[in-house]
């Protein structure tokens, strides 16, 4: 059995008290809110139908034997009850609009509301993906402009727009690599991934039919070139590297990584999750990258929405371009067109990765964001993102242990738990105490290459004042650690809508749906 | 009882070996929430994946410390995975194997050697 | 620049705190050869008004569905979305929050997911549903790969009624993972044909109801045949509203059911973002892809919700994960769930019945023009017609007259030899005037 540091951290609170009898239906003005199934709306609805639809015109006799024998048991709510239910629930969430959201590798930046407005224009929101091409020229032109901006920013000649999220984009890139090798009769079996990689990298490689082998990392947080060179045998299809990596460092040997990779007949996949650090300043195409996905929901600020939707377009080198998934967007004299079948000129395509053409709603928001910043503003995005992370690093390093103290970091800074040793306070405890002090925790226990990782990414949309508020708070908490005020941490959070949750119970006895 | 560097234990009785994970392993994992066990009849060589033990935040493969054929799995763990934390070296056993070569068991560490190994970690 | 709060004074101060001479000093790790010496060749920054004008002009070049009679379906459906749905999903706390990994401060999103899972499970007639996939097509592909894991077999039989995009997506995603898909010939009433194609290597059969031609099928007998051969049955619904009226997949013996949830709470959006629904039998829970939200208690014994069974997922299991999915369709799932909460079971049934009634009216109107042959006889809200001319030409010609008449089957599958087949759909949005306009324009179009 492999033991991984940090995995044995507590996943249930120290003591679970018996539930206190709820005396009142809320606290302050924060309202308790039951499940919709407990609100008693079994015969209600918040949608009125026309008298015609409620009357005799409804006839399903032609579907006899095909309709539900038992009524669908789901409650309905009137509109005021619905508003209350969801507004009350919303107030139990943290949000980027409330405060800095320092999740490393997640790029939680401000989401401009202009994007919401534009994505809802009927000309974007109320068009069908299979309408005649002649009726959607503006939508295709928007996709063309987005493609142009992304190709220019990355210095890459081709792009696949359809992947629906980062992991879907990774798969797109690896399938293109697989097809390129197969096309030259050189099918390969292995993908190399650094130990600090996002979990999606090895998961995607496995899904694409590859075995995964790990590349070691040097003590200063970079890809170990010697280890990579030793592992680049003729069976390696691709090297997947996140750059800047998840330790918040730019892979300074990236050009050499690309050279070694190409020399071995393999392709260089770059995980673009951290593109925010270099957008407008460095073009991955100049680094020897063959494929890179771009998380529009990170770098180009489409909202995270509590877990999605995202969008993961993939830029491709000339060598991989013929294998891009359909649909292909083309432009001719008659305007824009879509190639929707992997036949004829698109026969080399890996095929279709999803129904339709990708995340149009995200394309609109991302293009609005890019046009707003322009080439000058995007440069500033990268500069300010890196400046803010280094500022946090500078302010906290005297107290917390930065994992890579020498030299600057990029858009995020990695601390570990050496400074907590012997204090009785763990990374988890410290992070949970941040909640009581008004901040969302940073990414914890990732990457796996340091113990008790704390990965902080402030992004460029934080003001100096908010950064100082954040740093002052962490320094204050650190002082409490030094003063051995362990109780403040062990039971934290005390002031959130709920205290620590029993994740062990949830996993041992899964209750995944409400039952009567 | 014999031990491996992968923190598994083996106890031989006749030609049947009982296998589980050590107290140290259970502590490292934290609260065990699920154990995936092989079906009886499965033949394994040393080093083959034998079972998976899961906590909330990790899933670890348990490798066969010796070769043989699975004769029984501890099905009680499916309803009570916490037994692995409560009694990892007793009621929390994983599988019983009909041993192919008893010498493989003898080659493993005894308690003193395992304890010494733990001190090096 | 309106989204960047740092002033030049801030930048200078902060560089001083860091101890860096200038910004370039922070980029020392970037090889000199790769550093750009100025902005890339793209336009400079633009104000909100300018951007609105530019994108508004592009929006104006598209013909919105609401601009005239509209009959497109085939995997994306135009339904009414109550104003409160769109208002609520724009609450900052839903729109601008991250995946709920910190449950103490994410109970809003988590409770929504638990309610969503419960609603999806009820619609599907199965006990377990996940917290959403990208869309119906990728959910279908994931289901095929899951069936291969569960059965240890490597072949999937896809019905000829399965949406061609779904079949192609399943092929692309499953092929490299070592699962072979075999799609049977496209046919209007094709679901039962999968039974003949099952053999001892079949992991699953994939059937769709209503299928891409609109045909509604009771798949109970297909499920029995699949199970008898040790295979699973995956039931696909591309139009979630149909689940309000028709027998649920679970009722018919489905092992895994997937659906496109767009049609509840979400707009057409030119194909995305949508929301994939994914449900299965309880025994298969640990093989599911995607996030799952579960109930538990906090340190004071109060009920709460957390993401659970995460050892299936990529961030823990890495190359042994059940899927590589991370980001899903959270906000679209929220829209789905709010709309479902407004409707309730009774309201969804009423909505489904209204859709069916409109489709019947359309069916009756289009049966009249001579030369039009209606191909689909058991339908929910869409059906297939055979025209005396290539359907794509007719659609193009009617579009020029302001009518979006439906989807030519050749747009989805040009190789099927069904170039004269048109797929039409009616929903509660369709009016009697729309139907009359299409019937009369179609008649004029095909009359020699």
Short overview:
Chain B has 121 residues and is of the alpha+beta class. Chain B is built from 5 helices and 9 strands; from the N terminus they run E-E-E-H-E-E-E-E-E-H-H-E-H-H. Chain C contains 14 helices and 13 strands.
Q: How would you sum up this structure, described in words?
A:
The complex is a heterotrimer of chains A (516), B (121) and C (448). Chain A is an alpha/beta fold and 516 residues long. Chain A has 14 helices and 15 strands. Chain A has helices at 51-54, 79-90, 113-119, 122-125, 137-154, 166-183, 200-207, 225-231, 254-263, 360-396, 427-436, 464-482, 487-490, 503-508; strands at 26-27, 30-31, 158-160, 190-194, 211-215, 236-242, 267-271, 291-293, 314-316, 328-332, 335-339, 401-402, 413-416, 443-444, 454-456. Chain B has one domain (2-99): OB fold (Dihydrolipoamide Acetyltransferase, E2P) (Beta Barrel). Chain B has 121 residues and is an alpha+beta fold. Chain C starts with 7 loop residues before the first helix and ends with a helix. By secondary structure, chain C is α/β, with parallel strands linked by helices. Chain C contains 14 helices and 13 strands. In chain C, the strands form three sheets. A seven-stranded mixed β-sheet of chain C has the order 1-7-6-5-4-2-3, with helices on both faces. A four-stranded antiparallel β-sheet of chain C has the order 10-11-13-12. A two-stranded antiparallel sheet of chain C has the order 8-9. Chains in contact: A-B, A-C, B-C. Chains A and C meet through α2, α3, α4, α5 and α6 of A and α1, α2, α3, α4 and α5 of C.
Blueprint (SSEs and pairs):
The complex is a heterotrimer of chains A (516), B (121) and C (448).
Chain A: E1 26-27, E2 30-31, H1 51-54, H2 79-90, H3 113-119, H4 122-125, H5 137-154, E3 158-160, H6 166-183, E4 190-194, H7 200-207, E5 211-215, H8 225-231, E6 236-242, H9 254-263, E7 267-271, E8 291-293, E9 314-316, E10 328-332, E11 335-339, H10 360-396, E12 401-402, E13 413-416, H11 427-436, E14 443-444, E15 454-456, H12 464-482, H13 487-490, H14 503-508
Parallel strand pairs in A: 4-5, 4-6, 6-7, 7-8
Antiparallel strand pairs in A: 1-2, 3-9, 8-9, 10-11, 12-13, 13-15, 14-15
Chain B: E1 2-3, E2 8-13, E3 16-21, H1 23-29, E4 32-36, E5 43-44, E6 49-55, E7 59-63, E8 68-73, H2 76-79, H3 83-86, E9 95-99, H4 103-106, H5 111-119
Chain C: H1 8-18, H2 48-60, H3 83-89, H4 92-95, H5 107-124, E1 128-129, H6 136-151, E2 155-158, H7 164-175, E3 180-183, H8 194-197, E4 202-208, H9 220-228, E5 232-237, E6 256-260, E7 276-280, E8 293-297, E9 303-307, H10 314-317, H11 330-367, E10 373-374, E11 382-386, H12 391-400, E12 407-408, H13 409-412, E13 421-425, H14 432-446
């Amino acid at each position: 059995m492999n033991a991984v540091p940090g995995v044995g951290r507590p996943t249930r609170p120290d003591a679970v008290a018996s539930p206190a009898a709820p005396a009142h239906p809320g606290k302050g003005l924060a309202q308790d809110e039951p499940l919709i199934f407990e609100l008693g709306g079994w015969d209600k609805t918040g949608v009125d139908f026309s008298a015609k639809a409620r009357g005799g015109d409804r006839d399903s006799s032609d579907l006899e034997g095909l309709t539900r024998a038992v009524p669908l048991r789901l409650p309905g709510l009137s509109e005021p009850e619905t508003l209350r239910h969801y507004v009350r629930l919303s107030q139990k969430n943290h949000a980027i609009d409330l405060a800095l959201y320092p999740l490393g590798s997640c790029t939680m930046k401000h989401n401009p509301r202009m994007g919401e407005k534009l994505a809802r224009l009927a000309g974007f929101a109320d068009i069908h993906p299979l309408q005649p091409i002649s009726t959607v020229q503006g939508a295709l032109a928007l996709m063309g402009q987005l493609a142009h901006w992304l190709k220019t920013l990355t210095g890459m000649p081709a792009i696949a727009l359809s992947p629906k999220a980062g992991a879907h984009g990774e798969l797109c890139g690896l399938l293109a690599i697989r097809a390129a090798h197969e096309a030259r009769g050189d099918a390969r079996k292995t993908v190399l991934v650094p130990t600090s990689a996002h979990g999606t990298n090895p998961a995607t490689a496995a899904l694409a039919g590859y075995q995964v082998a790990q590349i070691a990392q040097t003590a200063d947080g970079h890809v170990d070139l010697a280890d990579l060179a030793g592992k680049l045998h003729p069976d390696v299809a691709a090297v997947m590297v996140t750059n800047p990596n998840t330790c918040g460092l730019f892979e300074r040997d990236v050009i050499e990584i690309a050279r070694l990779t190409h020399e071995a007949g393999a392709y260089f996949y770059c995980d673009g999750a951290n593109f925010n650090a270099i957008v407008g300043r460095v073009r991955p195409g100049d680094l020897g990258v063959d494929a890179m996905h771009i998380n529009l929901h990170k770098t180009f600020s489409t909202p995270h929405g509590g877990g999605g939707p995202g969008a993961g377009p993939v830029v491709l080198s000339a060598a991989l371009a013929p294998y891009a998934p359909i649909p292909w967007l083309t432009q001719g004299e008659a305007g824009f067109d879509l190639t929707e079948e992997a036949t004829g000129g698109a026969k080399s395509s890996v095929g279709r990765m999803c129904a339709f053409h990708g995340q149009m709603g995200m394309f609109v928001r991302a293009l609005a964001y890019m046009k707003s910043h322009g080439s000058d503003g995007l440069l500033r995005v990268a500069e300010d993102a890196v400046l803010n992370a280094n500022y946090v690093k500078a302010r906290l390093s005297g107290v917390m242990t930065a994992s890579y103290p020498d030299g600057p970091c990029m858009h995020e800074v990695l601390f570990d738990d050496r400074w907590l040793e012997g204090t009785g306070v763990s990374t988890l405890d410290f992070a949970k105490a941040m909640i009581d002090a008004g901040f969302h925790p940073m990414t914890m226990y990732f990457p796996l290459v340091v113990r008790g990782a704390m990965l902080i990414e402030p992004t460029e949309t934080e003001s100096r004042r908010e950064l100082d508020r954040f740093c002052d708070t962490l320094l204050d908490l650190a002082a409490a650690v030094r003063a051995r005020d362990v109780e403040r941490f062990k039971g934290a959070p005390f002031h959130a809508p709920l205290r620590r949750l029993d994740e062990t119970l949830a996993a041992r006895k899964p209750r995944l749906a409400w039952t009567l | 009882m014999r031990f491996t560097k992968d923190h598994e234990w083996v106890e031989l009785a006749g030609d049947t070996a009982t296998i589980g994970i050590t107290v140290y392993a259970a502590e490292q994992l934290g609260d065990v929430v699920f154990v995936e066990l092989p079906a009886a009849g499965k033949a394994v060589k040393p080093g083959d994946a034998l079972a998976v033990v899961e906590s909330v935040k990790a899933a670890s493969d348990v490798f066969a410390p010796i070769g043989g054929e699975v004769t029984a799995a501890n099905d009680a763990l499916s309803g009570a995975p916490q037994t692995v934390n409560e009694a990892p070296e007793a009621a929390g056993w994983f599988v019983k194997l009909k041993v192919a070569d008893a010498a493989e068991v003898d080659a493993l560490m005894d308690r003193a050697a395992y304890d010494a190994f733990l001190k090096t970690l | 620049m309106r989204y960047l709060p740092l002033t030049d004074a801030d930048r200078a101060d902060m560089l001083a705190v860091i101890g860096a001479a200038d910004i370039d000093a922070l980029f020392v790790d970037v090889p000199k050869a790769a550093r750009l010496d100025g902005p890339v060749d793209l336009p400079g920054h633009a104000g909100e008004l300018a951007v609105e004008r530019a994108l508004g002009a592009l929006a104006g070049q598209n013909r919105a569905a609401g601009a005239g009679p509209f009959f497109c379906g085939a995997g994306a459906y135009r339904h009414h979305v109550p104003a409160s749905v769109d208002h609520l999903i724009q609450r900052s706390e839903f729109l601008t929050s991250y995946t709920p990994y910190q449950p103490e401060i994410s109970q809003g999103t988590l409770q929504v997911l638990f309610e969503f899972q419960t609603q999806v499970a009820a619609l599907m007639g199965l006990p377990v549903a996940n917290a959403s996939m990208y869309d119906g097509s990728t959910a279908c592909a994931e289901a095929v790969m899951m069936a291969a894991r569960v059965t240890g077999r490597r072949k999937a039989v896809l019905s000829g009624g399965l949406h061609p995009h779904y079949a192609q997506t399943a092929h692309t995603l499953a092929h490299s993972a070592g699962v072979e898909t075999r799609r049977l010939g496209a046919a209007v009433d094709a679901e039962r044909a999968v039974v003949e194609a099952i053999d001892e290597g079949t992991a699953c059969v994939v059937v769709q109801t209503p299928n891409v031609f609109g045909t509604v099928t009771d798949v109970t007998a297909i499920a029995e045949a699949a199970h008898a051969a040790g295979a699973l049955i995956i039931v696909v619904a591309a139009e979630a509203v149909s689940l309000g009226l028709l027998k649920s997949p679970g009722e018919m013996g489905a092992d895994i059911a997937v659906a496109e949830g767009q049609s509840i709470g979400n707009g057409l959006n030119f194909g995305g973002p949508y929301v994939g629904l994914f449900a299965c039998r309880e025994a298969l829970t640990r093989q599911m892809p995607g996030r799952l939200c579960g109930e538990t208690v906090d340190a004071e014994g109060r009920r709460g919700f957390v993401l659970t069974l995460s050892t299936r997922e990529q961030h823990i299991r890495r190359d042994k994960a059940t899927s590589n999915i991370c980001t899903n369709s959270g906000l679209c799932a929220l829209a789905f769930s709010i709309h479902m909460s407004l409707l309730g079971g009774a309201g969804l049934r009423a909505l489904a019945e209204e859709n069916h009634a409109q489709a019947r009216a359309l069916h009756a109107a289009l049966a009249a023009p001579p030369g039009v042959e209606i191909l689909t006889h058991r339908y929910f809200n869409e059906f297939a017609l055979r025209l005396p001319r290539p359907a794509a030409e007719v659609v193009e010609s009617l579009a020029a007259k302001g009518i979006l008449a439906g989807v030519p089957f050749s747009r989805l599958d040009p190789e099927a030899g069904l170039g004269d087949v048109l797929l039409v759909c009616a929903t509660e949005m369709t009016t009697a005037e729309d139907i009359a306009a299409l019937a009369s324009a179609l008649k004029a179009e095909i009359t020699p």
